[in-house]
Amino acid sequence: MTMTISNNAVAKRITVNIPTASGDAIEAWVYMPQGRGPHPAIVMAHGIGGIKAGGLVPFAERFRDEGFVSIAFDYRNFGGSDGQPREALSVPREREDYSTVIGWAVEQPYIDPRQIIAWGTSFAGMHVLELAVSDTRLLAAVAQAPLTDGLAAAMMSPLKSGIRLFGLALLDRVGSLFGRQPIYIPGHGKPGELSIGATPDGPFGEKLMTPKDGTQWHDRIAARSLLSFSWRRPVRRAGSVRVPMLLVVPMADSIAPVPAALEVARRAPGAELFRSIGGHYDVYEGGAGFADVLRTEIDFLHRHAKIATVT
User: Which residue from 143, 165, 67, 99 is spatially nearest to 297, judged by alpha carbons?
Assistant: First the structure.
């Protein structure tokens, strides 16, 4: 594992490269609160095709200021993490990356291993829900604008677009068997355009997800990725959630199916639900619901974790 200090001293951030069984390192940004700790920690990752530099920093910095170690990471094949081909999504691999980063966190002397929280946004809601069921290292979980039913999400696409996307996914999958480079699908677009998020607020989402620090972001995923999640339905495991869980569900989400998220809130033991104003992207900085979402999440975190005394 390598560790470097960020050039932005104000951010109090370090960059770590966490090894994995595949040999491809996961790049994570670790935001350190004041004091020696040990501190509670929040392990954070983005949605489909997103990277930590685009949209996660405002959350990570605020959580740090509240006394939490914030660990924002890129999945393998995305952002600053290793892995080929680029922007090829795998649900099992992404979930394994969460588990790897959690395992790294519990070994750090400045982190309280009994106070690890999994945090995920959008597509990462699938992973956080599964972790809340199966990972005994967790204290709590937070999922905002969460995708919890891949099949329901696929059915939200217009029929014509859905057929085209599925055809490209199959073609790309066959090509991968022969070592061909991926066929890429844009992450955002306007209604009628071929993209993952072809919704009226797609351009707004692209703007908010574009890194402000100049980090390169391609805003795309390999078409074969669609075959990895369209049939996955973690909502069906909601009744087995083991830890306190906060679900932030936008009032007008046009990307992540709202009924499935509400079902998780109803079925998960002890789950808390917050309905945020606006659409899918309004939970991020620059969106109409950001301030309320952040305040709600901080309240939840403080009620379930004990902050180390600053010395």
Answer: 143
Q: Kindly state the DSSP code that residue 20 receives in the 8-state scheme.
A: -
Task: Report the distance separating Cα 16 and Cα 36, nearest Å.
Answer: 19
* Cut 0.85: pTM above it: yes
User: Which H or E run includes 27?
Assistant: strand 26-31
Comparing C-alpha atoms, which of 9, 10, 45, 41 is closest to residue 28? 45
- Between 32 and 158, name the one with better pLDDT: 32
Both tokens of 239, joined, read 């009744």
What span, in angstroms and rounded, lies between the C-alpha atoms of 311 and 31? 18
CA 126 – CA 146 distance, rounded (Å):
7
d(CA 307, CA 177): 50
- Across 35-46, average pLDDT: 95
- What pLDDT is recorded for position 159? 65
Distance CA 228, CA 296 (A): 32
* Rounded Cα–Cα distance for residues 237 and 47 (Å): 20
For the chain, give the longest Cα–Cα distance: 60
Query: How far is 110 from 122, CA to CA, in rounded Å?
Result: 29
Tell whether the model's pLDDT for residue 7 goes beyond 50: no
Query: Is the predicted pLDDT of residue 158 greater than 80, yes or no?
Result: no
When pLDDT is cut at 50, 70 and 90, the band that residue 4 belongs to is very low
- Please check whether residue 101 is in contact with residue 43, taking contact to mean a CB–CB distance below 8 angstroms: yes
For residue 140, what are the β-bridge partners? 117
Q: What is the DSSP letter of 284?
A: S
DSSP state of 53: T
How far is CA 286 from each of CA 194, 226, 278, 282, rounded to the nearest angstrom? Answer: 25, 29, 12, 7
